[in-house]
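Example 252, ligand magnesium ion.
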Amino acid sequence: MHRLGRLGRRPSRSDDQQRRVWLIDLDNTLHDASWRLMAEINARMTGFISDRLGVSLQAAGALRTRYWHRYGATLLGLIRHHGVEANDFLRATHPDRDLPPFVARRPGLRRELAALTGQRWLVTNAPRDYTDHLLRILGIAQCFDRLVCIDDMHSISRLRPKPHPLLWRRLIRAAGRRPSELCLIDDSAANLRTAHRVGIGTARLWASPSQRKLGWAHQRPASALRPSYVRVQVNSWPSLIRRLGDRPQGRP
Ligand SMILES: [Mg+2]
């Protein structure tokens, strides 16, 4: 009887949940990078650009911001316009063994990640060494089925990091799932927008209280305004798990 039941059964909700692939960003999604770390990385990027291009720190800082807005990653602008080697830039600008003083740990994150049933893939535009060190410091190195770092984001020998749509299509193919069975959890509007366009579910999470406070519009915090390409928008991991954790309505 039990066996017959299994033969004829329809996919259950738990099958649906097991098939999900969560694409989870690192900085300002899994931890508050704006607390100290982003300032350090930005300062190192500005110093690198100033040294490499022979411009003032002020001009280098302006260029860093301009390329970030235009390409979604400062590195892409430096490769395209100045022939910078990706590895040189990434090694010079991201702390690894010297990370601990820049990272704020938050209890409960490992348990919250475990409540996202299915596969969990970390997808970050940061380099592998930095990512490995950071995950260990945060105590969540064992929580991911796959790490996709900027080192893995070459397509036809060109770097295609977030928010490039080719990256999302590669991940959909690699997962062997329908796009709607994937969900991106990220703080970046640009990343969420392109993921939504290829059919991936989207959840915006600000892990950084300092970043949340930055954006105000129409007398309301920007976090209260949800763009159409974002299905779920929250300010914390506990809120995200309440919305997307293991339950029927938990589908972005
Ligand atoms: Mg981020």
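Summary: The pocket of magnesium ion is lined by residues 25, 27-29, 186-188 (CB under 6 Å).
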